[in-house]
Amino acid sequence: MNKCLSKNGYLIMTVGNRSVDAVRQPLDDISIEILESLGLKLVSKFNRNILYKNSPSRLPFNKNERSISTISQETILLFNKMED
C-alpha cells in the first residue's frame, strides 16, 4: 500500500475486531502494527457502532450449543504517508 500512495497521501481503512473460537482478534491493532512497519503513520483511530447490520447480532455456535456475538463495532483507521 505504501508504494501505491503519493507522498503525503492518506489511507482510510475500516476493520472489525472479531472472535475466533471465543478468542478476540484485534484486527485494528494488527493493522496498525503492519502499516506502521511499512512506513505509514497513524493519524487517527476511532470506533463507531454498526447501525444497520444484515446479519443477526448472535450466531449459533456448535460447541455446547452456545451462541456467539457478531461484530457490533468497527474501527476506522486513518494513515498518512510521510515524505521520504
UniProtKB/TrEMBL annotation:
Recorded superkingdom: Bacteria
Protein name: Methyltransferase
